[in-house]
């Protein structure tokens, strides 16, 4: 039974999902257990996907008691579940400390994709995004990010389906919670765990320059997406205050380094906002910035967020924008909208929940 934080004495115990296999081996050694026990625990967590330590039946009672004494399972309490006509399911999960986060399961013809959150709220301040309303509350631990995928997989287990891809595009800026995000990623791709293919995982950043360089040196096959949303410094600063901290040209330079180092194609996410950044001249300028880069542009017709005064780009203007990019040799698609009928823009559900409290 999880106590509310107010009832807790002293520090909270670490989450068992915070530990990777190496950590578990280290823990086993420190507790006088053979190393193979770590593999058994890892298997119970990610292959058998148990809900508590007592279900780990091939471990001794003493070992289970020790685990229970030293670790917590992450509890994600389902506050709201919304199902869209297109099969998208959006969850608002309550955390142990009364904060809430959103996780989304999206159905594609190639399988189930999970969109996870890395922070409670966000401090990046993009003017068209609901995640940032109310600012940043705290970082999630690696285990709290892991738990979102495990929970989604448990839900899919009931239908005999599996998580086939992960996008780290929920609320928050993953590269401002870099260590926890990387630990989460390494747990996800471990072949003895959920074993998600690296090329089926995409991490999205608003352009935290030092950590783009860091990520380039991580030696992974994980995809990188950049929220760009403007073709120049001035407009980007208006839409994304983070651009004042990490200017447009510095972001592009970091991305050129990433391309040189990894040879992996970058996805540029571009939210189209009616009359703001969606005109043919914006498309032409973006094309000139991206020429000669191995990249793909994903155009996102912006969801209407009532708290923001932006309007959606007309269908005609969306296609015009796409045409200008394509004619200039830029690989471009329009994102298929999912969950449009269930407030699926990041942060909308949480913002609604906070209003009602």
Distance between the termini: 24 Å
Structural class: alpha/beta
CATH architect. name of the largest domain: Alpha-Beta Barrel
| Amount of helix | 25-40%
CATH class membership of the largest domain = Alpha Beta
Low-confidence stretches: 1-10
Looking at the structure, the CATH topology of the largest domain is TIM Barrel
Overall mean pLDDT score?
90
The global form is elongated
CATH superfamily of the largest domain: Aldolase class I
Helix segment tally:
12
Radius of gyration: 21 Å
| Strand/helix succession | HHHEEEEEEHEHEHEHHHEHEHEH
User: Quick one: biggest sheet?
Assistant: 10 strands, mixed
- Estimated share of beta-strand residues: 15-25%
Active site: 102, 346
Binding site for [4Fe-4S] cluster: 122, 126, 129
Cofactor: [4Fe-4S] cluster
Pfam family, one: Radical_SAM
Keywords:
357 residues, two-stranded antiparallel ribbon, 35% helix, ten-stranded mixed beta sheet, TIM Barrel, 2 domains, DNA polymerase, domain 1, alpha/beta, 19% strand
Describe the structure in your own words.
By secondary structure, the protein is α/β, with parallel strands linked by helices. The protein folds into two domains: about 20-70, DNA polymerase, domain 1 (Orthogonal Bundle); about 75-355, TIM Barrel, CATH 3.20.20. It is about 35% helix and about 20% strand. The chain is built from twelve helices and twelve strands. The chain has helices at about 20-30, 35-45, 60-70, 140-155, 180-190, 210-215, 235-240, 240-245, 250-260, 280-290, 315-325, 350-355; strands at about 75-85, 90-95, 100-110, 110-115, 120, 135-140, 165-170, 200-205, 225, 265-270, 295-300, 330-335. β2 (about 90-95) and β3 form a beta hairpin. The chain is elongated. InterPro entries: Aldolase_TIM, Methyltransferase_A, RlmN_N, RNA_MTrfase_RlmN, rRNA_lsu_MTrfase_RlmN/Cfr, rSAM, rSAM_sf. It is an enzyme of class 2 (transferase). Belongs to the radical SAM superfamily. RlmN family.
């Amino acid at each position: 039974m999880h106590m509310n934080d107010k009832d807790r004495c002293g520090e909270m115990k670490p989450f068992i999902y915070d530990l990777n296999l190496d950590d578990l081996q280290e823990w086993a050694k420190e507790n006088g257990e053979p190393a193979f026990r770590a593999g058994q625990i890892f298997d119970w967590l990610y292959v058998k996907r148990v809900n508590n330590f007592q279900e780990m039946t091939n471990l001794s009672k003493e070992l289970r008691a020790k685990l229970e004494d030293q670790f917590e399972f992450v509890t994600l309490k389902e506050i709201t579940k919304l199902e869209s006509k297109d099969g998208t399911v959006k969850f608002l999960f309550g955390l142990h400390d009364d904060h809430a986060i959103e996780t989304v399961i999206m159905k594609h013809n190639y399988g189930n994709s999970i969109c996870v959150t890395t922070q409670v709220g966000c401090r990046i301040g993009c003017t068209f995004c609901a995640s940032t309303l109310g600012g940043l509350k705290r970082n999630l631990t690696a285990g709290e990010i892991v738990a979102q995928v495990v929970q989604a997989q448990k839900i899919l287990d009931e239908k005999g389906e599996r998580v086939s891809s992960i996008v780290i595009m929920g609320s928050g800026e993953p590269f401002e919670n870099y260590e926890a995000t990387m630990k989460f990623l390494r747990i996800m791709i471990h072949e003895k765990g959920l074993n998600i293919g690296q090329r089926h995982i995409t991490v999205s950043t608003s352009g935290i320059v030092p950590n783009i360089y860091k990520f380039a040196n991580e030696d992974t096959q994980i995809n990188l997406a950049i929220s760009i949303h403007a073709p120049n410094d001035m407009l980007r600063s208006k839409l994304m205050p983070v651009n004042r901290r990490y200017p447009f040209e510095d972001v592009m330079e970091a991305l050129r380094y990433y391309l040189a180092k990894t040879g992996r194609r970058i996805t540029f996410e571009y939210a189209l906002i009616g009359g703001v950044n969606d005109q043919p001249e914006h498309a032409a300028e973006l094309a000139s910035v991206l020429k000669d880069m191995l990249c793909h542009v994903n155009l996102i017709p912006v969801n209407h967020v009532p708290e923001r005064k932006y309007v959606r780009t007309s269908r005609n203007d969306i296609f015009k924008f796409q045409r200008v990019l394509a004619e200039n040799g830029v690989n471009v698609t329009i994102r298929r909208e999912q969950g449009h009928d269930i407030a699926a823009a990041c942060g909308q559900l949480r913002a609604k929940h906070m209003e009602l409290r």
